[in-house]
Every structure is written in structure tokens, then in C-alpha cells.
Amino acid sequence: MPIVESQKIYKDLENKKFSPVYFFYGDEPYLLGQIPDRFKFSVLDENTFDFNLNIFYGGDVDVSVLKDAVETLPVMTMNRLVILKNAEAIKESEWAELESLFKNPVDSTVFVICADKVDKRKKSIKLIFENAITSEFKKPYDNEVPRWINHLAQNHDLKFSAEATHRLHRLVGNNLSELENQIQKLKNFVGTKSVIDLVDVNEVVSNSKEESVFDFTRAIGQKDRITALEQLVQLIDQGQNEVGIVSLLARHMRILLTVRSGMDQGLGGSKLASLAQVPAYFIEGYCDQARVWSIKKIEDALVVLNETDKALKSSPVSSHIWLENMVLKSCSL
Question: Taking the mean position of all CA atoms in its chain, how far away is CA 299?
């Protein structure tokens, strides 16, 4: 079956249109975490939860018990609901025992499977894709984050000023769970106030690690070797994962590569922001950095980052030495 937009599935749930098997996967835990409650309150009557709801976890489930639960008839209602979380932990041999649930699904049961990462080459995953209503949850791109902030704020009867949205995005990034946590904190902080402004965000949202990451990537983008080394030390002191630092910087450099290429084509403003998939209010900062680089130099920097990533994962030499060498090479290109 084709991958379906989650909003289409949610609309069907509201209309009480259920399929026997659903598969949700992706790297966005906030959206995956909402799935059980969405199905629980759509498929079941609150009075029959105890009789018709089973939740299993892939790390410690007995697949024979799971299979029996799916094949059990509902009690005092039209449907049963069986939810399998952390399905990525299910072994291929265990999926084989569940094969009949996909080839001949139980019409009276709504079987919901949730997984973080999947290997689409595996026979079991191919079988699920062929027979389940499937939807993927990806982390939002940077240019989608402002819309998510506004959406999450509406759930708390709040509105964000443009400056507050910009600031929260810069501090938190595209982590929807953390955005939700910070918006909840802001709600508690402002009380009856309905509009969040820049001052509120600065008062409530912690910025030490997020600001350090931003300052580090910006320093590399500006080829400011001294500041980059200072920020690198701060990131390491804060416990930032070394491979994660390289990954964040590689992402930043790929954005600069897109921006530099777009600028060379005469693009600017919202068109360039759309091409780079970043919010329009970030684009001038990226342009300022991109002007320092040629496309060839950015490509060379990405080679350095790739070499550093491999070294961190395989070399016995101290990771700090590799990271410092990465900064020195990148800023001297």
C-alpha cells in the first residue's frame, strides 16, 4: 500500500473509518508518541478500555501472546485495539510468526504498529508495507518549525510574536518534544497572558547548549577559528556527543552549500530560503556566511568533516584532537 499522509488517517479516525493494520514509523518521537491516544479514543469507548485494549513493547513481547490478542474478538463493542510499540526490536523470526496477521488481517481488530527506524529491505517490513496503512513521521525541516510552533502554541491557547517564534526556534531547533515542553513552561510562566513575546522566551527557555551549538556552527561558517575553538571546548564540557558535533556542522555546511549555489544563480530572500529549506528570517545570516566560501571550499570542508566522522568512529587517537584538527582545517580553507 502507498504511504499515507497522517492527516488523512486522523480524518478517517474522526469519521470512525478503521483499517485492520496500521504502521507508523520515523525519527520524530513526538508524533509517534501521540499515536496510541489518538487510536485509543477513536476506536474504543472509554468504558471498554479494560476489555479491548492491549499494548505491547517490541523489546519484551511474546509474539504468540501478541498474535492471540489480535485474534481475540472484541467485548461489548465493534473493535479491539492492539498497539505494538518499539516494533524495530522484533526479530525476523518473530515477524514470521505474525505473517498471517498481515496476509489475512482480523477485521474486528485494529492492529497499530509503531517503530523508530525500519530496514525496508527486510522481508517482514516489505510485507507490512504491502498490507498496512502506513505513514512516516519525519523531523520537520527548519522552514517548517515556525508553523509547528504556532500549531503547538494553539493547543495551549497561546500565540507567539514573530520575534518570540524566531528565538524559540533558534534555542530549541526542530525537536518537537522539546518545543512542546518549552511551550508548556511558557504557558505556566505567563499565566492568563495569551501572547508570548521575546522577553518571555528569554526568561523561560534555557539556552546554554543550544546557543553554543549555534555559535559554533556560525563561527565555522565565518571562518572564525578562535571563536570556533572556544565554542568547541564549551560543547565538549557540556557533554555534547563528538560525532553529533560533526553531524551538526555537516548539516550547517550543506545548507551553506545550497545557499551559495542559490546566490550564484541570483536567488535571494524567500526564494533562497525555500531552496535551502530554512526560515526566511535565518536566510541573511546564512548568506553572510556563504559569501565567505566558494562552492569548492564548502565541498572541501564537507570532505574534512566526513574524514573526521570516520576517524572518531575508528581511530584510537583522542576525539578532541580530531575535532580541533577539523576546526583548524575547515577555517583555513
Answer: 26
